[in-house]
Protein 1
Amino acid sequence: MTAVLTAARRGRAAVKWAVSQLLVDRPWNVTSRVGFVVGLGLLFMVPGMLLATLVEWGSSVSDDEVALGMGALVTLAGGGLLVTFTRLDEDMPPASVFAAVAWTWIGLSLFAALPLWFSGELGSFDTALFEAVSGVTATGSTVLSPIEGTGRGVLMWRQIMQWYGGMGMVVLAVTILPFLGVGGLSLITAEAPGPTSDRLAPRVSSTARRLWALYGGITLAIAAALMIAGLSLYDAVAHAFTSAGTGGFSPYDDSIGHFDSIAVEAVMIVGMLVGGVSFTLHWRAAAGNPGVYGRSSEFRTYLLVILAVALFASLLNWLNDLSDLANSLRNGIFGAVTLGTSGGFGNASSTNPGGDFAAWTPGAQALLLPIMVMGGMTGSTAGGLKVLRAQVMAKYMRVGLLRVKHPRVVARVKLGQMAVSEPILQRVAGLVALYALSALVATLVLAALGQDLITSSSAAISALSNMGPALGDAGPTSNYLVFSRPARAVLMSMMLIGRLEFFAVFLVVVSAYERTRRLTRVNLRR
Amino acid sequence: MSDPSRVRFTWHRSAVRVLTSVVATATSLVVISTVVYLASGEVSRVDDAIFESVAGLTTTSLTVVDPEALPTWLLTWRALTQWLGGLGGLMLALVVVPAFGGQRRLSEVAEGRGRRAVLARTWSHNTQRVVLTYMGLTILVFAAYYAAGMGVFDAATFGLTTASTGGFANYRDSFAHFDSAAIEWVGAGAMALAGVSIAALVWMVRGKVQALWRSTELKLYACLTIGSTVLVSAWTWTDTGGGADTIRESFFVVTSSISTTGFRVTDWGYWVAAPQILLLLLIGVGSMAGSTGGGFRVLRVIEILGIVRRELVVQLHPRAVVPVRVSGAAASEASLTRVLNFQILWVLAVASGVIGIASLGGDLPTAVSGSISALATAGPGLGDLSGFADATVLAAPARGVLTALMFLGRLSIYPVVVVIGWGIGEIQRMRLRR
């Protein structure tokens, strides 16, 4: 026992030494925040790649160990080089925070595509890159077809990517940057800028560490529950990764429909719902205060909306004779949860065709669109505009109506006890507008590249909300090979824009524009 | 009425009363028109008569009657409801709203704040200007149609429904009936003009080129029209044979969409998806603020874009004070808040419409396009609503949803929602008293 403990202590010391060696500032280092954060993110991806390699090695379906191992090696080399030869500078202007986050995600997607590309299962690099972007943004749109028959290592890497992406690589990188101080928090918030940025601990690095510990714990719990529901270890772990991260990849063509088991679907529903809840709430609840769930109005709204959509959609499907009441309810609830949490699994199979929500009655499909846009709670692994923003907008609208009625009224939007200031309201509304603009532009471009109205608009929303399957031709039983290569490029950028909640990606563009215009001060006219 | 400053003071305190009277006026007009349709014996069902009346008074081109089977006097009445509806919309936007809320005055809408007003500031003068310009436009359009070869009756009714961006036609196949390039060119140009704000029309008459050039909204409106025409032509070039015909048809459908008029000249349901979606977007964007058209309005789009840009700049420079400029002048924060609120209301209305229509029997493309098109008071859509289809392709309950959307859209949502909220509050109070 003592021997094990000593070994563990020595191992930890070794890791600490290695990390400190990596982080040490050498005189020839280049000052580059982007490079440093990207490097750290890459290093953190290596264990996942190694795990996938191990799975591949252990399975007899195919032997792509070398390809996956090569991917891990290249990523290790890339990350190591970047971390060794770059340093962080002290001050963190907002522009560079956003740039760091945006470039981290682009860099990580490129490297995450390597194992897929090397294995040759996805053909050319651009399909591998699409799969990787869809993976690390926890979207779940796939171009792998057929999925079954692909090597287990590659499939496992897809699941692991979504697990990483669910919580966010930058949060991961921040766990070992105790010296970052305030800049670290702005990095985290730039990765998922909610209206509020909660700290779970006084120090940013401990906040990030706690988030990841919680995430790991939830994943383990889901995996255990899936095993109890009757899945093999491989299936359970694979699906736990993607349900906690509300990703949506599955190693089977029929997704969850492959198992055709109500128990498995129930566990997945709970898993996705948990993934779509704010991790701050989870942390407080885990710290011995489970009452926080009931007290959070965002949590109540989140559950209520999903439940309402599930019930109404089931009712409409049942009334239109799509299936009997029990099956309608089963599929309605699964569909509403999988889209309301931006999960994106499907439970359709040959024995349960009603799970294909792209084939639901039009009314039920129309009900799904709003929750696809809304997504999960702030501070969760889910995508979309977030429930809190929808609540804030609803209250903003009510105050606006009050002002029409009583032009001189002093009314404020309140969240709990706190009044929300006008600039923050405008920021949220601006984000909604950005979402709408991006969705409209993407819809038009996708349509110009040959898709119909419903396919292009729902695919744009799906990509922006990091959902996965869409309606129309890109439904849960189809895949994204229906889109042409340029259309997939548009979708990829929408996924990244949506995952980073708009500002990071657009700001990189805006700041580049500013730099070229040599506008250091704000004197943009018109 | 007399001086607006005095009028405004009392109206401030009774905004609900003003809004109620707006909604009540609109409703009573609908009732009158419904009675006319029913009394004529040409429309037998009450809900059809209501639909036709609402479509007319909201200047939407959706119809449930066969216009070729109607007597001349009823066709005239049908066109007149649209003309009245257009006038009502103008009065609401340019006279009533600015007067009661001290909100956006005509001069502010058209020229931005702080500029020397070209338009009169007084209430009665404004009303006079608006009505005269509107009548002038109608007569101009009538004359142009007549010159292009329409009969007197057609030119008059089409003049009424074009100037009001209404879109009711005397023929089942709308403009395709004439099969005349000249008439289509005139129609397209007239629709484009009808989508321009009354203020800008006044400038055009007076030759105020500078004022026209300064208007961001007019420039964007023109750019959208021309750019979309180019895009639609390019997308449909091979399908429609290319050449002048394609350009003319593209220009026609683009102006018909962006001005939210809704005249049809071709069945775009057979086109590829992209131009259809672009036209739907144009219908959603709609015409200039202060015109008879509907939609989200180009002005609001500019303000939304400005807010988005400001949010991006503020993220980079957290202490920057960035004004949102429209036509060279900074928009007031209050007006920006109103635009953002309107955006939410608009999206909510469309979403409810989509869910409603889809649940009541329309397929998804029809529901999405129908909601947007009805709320923008245009008419044409995709799916079942594309081409020369009239509203009878939808079941009666789904048409009820369209009716509500048209009504909401024409009154720019606010009055209806406020009055409904006030009504619910009154009922609750009555219950409490008991």
Protein 2
Amino acid sequence: MLNNSIQYTIPAGEKRELLLINEPSINYHIVQEEGSSLLVHVIALPNPKEQDYAQHTTITVEHNAANCRTEIYGLALLHGNQQHHLTTSVLHNVGEGYSSQLIKFVLDDASKASFKGELKILPDAQHVEAYQTNRNILLSRQADMVTEPQLEIYADDVKASHGATTGQLDESALFYMQQRCIGRESARKLLLCAFFDDVMRTLPDEQMQENLLDKINEYIG
Amino acid sequence: MLEIKNLHATIAGKEILKGLNLTINEGEVHAIMGPNGAGKSTLSNVLTGHPAYTVTAGEVIFRGKNLLEMSPEERAREGVFLSFQYPVEIPGVSMVNFMRTAVNEKRQHEGKPALSATEFLKLMREKKSLVGMDNKLTKRSVNEGFSGGEKKRNEIFQMAMLEPCLSILDETDSGLDIDALRIVAEGVNALKTPHTASIVITHYQRLLDYIVPDFVHVLADGKIVRTGGKELALELEEKGYAFLNE
């Protein structure tokens, strides 16, 4: 596959935001210099009618100096035969850095998605904090999610964790809401918006949060 | 209001209710007591339409309508309320959003317009003070991180918001200390009208000191085996369920 590739370096002390919404397949390679920070959102919220939606996004981030900070958030809501594949690679080459990743996908119908998350802390990269979480909800038996966390930690004085779960909507919560007069459809919407809530809150622009929430509500329908 | 005739129900193929009969009229409070595994919680789950249970025989008529044909949300909108033994935590769904959706879906069912934001908040304030619900709790996600007592009080708060005709309190006393129990009971009593009715499911007589029943039923092995007045609860407290084996 021929993907677009983009490379850049964030100069020392500077901040960058990268916001990808329904972006065509693309590779990013970002190098961070001392004290820089990076906030990434990869959002796949295609119209359910767009049957041939299939995107591959790769984000590679390297900490080449101390005190860098990276946050990566992923969100996807897919229908029909749509596909979204996210690969992240966070390389702590130098110590005293921070990275966190929170990836949440909801798959309906026969949609497919994957999250491959590489997290590497090199031997000299002491005092790094690095977290990776991937949570997915499958709304249909035909939906297919592949999660491959890959942690390689060679430094001994670090804080690192990862977790991945794939499940269904909480039936006991659905019943509880139905018992409170809330129709099953509205209950599903409330639960799925709640599921995405912690990712949505990290978007710096409130207007954008609202627009995306409207789309989520429309597409869950 | 509610007529249960020869109700049989199973879960995972096992028969739990085995021919239960019960009639409840407006204004009445019925206590259902009985040993563990008798089918008390099954009864509340079947009446509210929990999908894990299957009704294999019998009928339930609620205000002239066949309750068993309705979806869980339709039953709730028609006025059946269950105070859960274990209220569910729903992280990320705010109490305000949850309650507004609940109240407005019920109003829609009744052919009433949705409440405006101002009207809704006013209603919340009224009902909070009625049941002594802490402001902090309604600012959080539904039941998330609530203590046992706070969850039960939240159930009564939701009951106050939805104004059901029939309230089923499933072991509302479990896990409550005596003060919390009293506050919850006061809330239930404050909501009582000549046109509402309650089913109080409990293991212990002490809740019935605060919510005084008109009838006490003993449920054993899927059937009501004995019915009496409020003094029956005292007798059960004293003598236990040994008579069941006689």
